[in-house]
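Work Package 3 (structural annotation) set out to generate three-dimensional models for the target panel prioritized at the project kickoff. During this period the team completed the workflow that converts sequence records into discrete structure tokens, so that structures can be stored uniformly alongside our sequence database. As a representative example, we reproduce one entry of 144 residues exactly as it appears in the project archive.
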Amino acid sequence: MHFEKDMQKTREFLKEFAQYAQLENIQQADRVVRAILRVLRRRIAPQEFLDLLAQLPLCIKAVGVEGWRLSEFPDKSIRKVDSFIDAVMREDPGAQKDFGDNPKRAKEIVRAFFAFLKQHISEGEIKDVAAELPEDLQKFVEAA
């Protein structure tokens, strides 16, 4: 019974995000969210990532931790917005369909994700996440 409720919350979250980011459907939203979370977990402290996930629907939490290796942290190659976007595009198995070969479109979608996230987690948590990021990325998240 609870699992069905959790699945419904996840579907609603992905549907809202798909509309917010002007994505085609929830499958595309799922791939994008998965890719962004997987790159983010490589860049912020594990405890901070878990704090972020705690405020998201259960199935999104599962996506966030699936296949997680703590040895991935910290990925210091992700220092700028462009390197974050590149990593997201490489992480997304449907990147060609989701972003094309268009880093500008990918950046818009990632910005939309952080703006959307601000509507679903506490202000303090988004500030904590941003504080974990290098300055360029921190400004990007705060401006979203």
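The chain has a mean pLDDT of 94.
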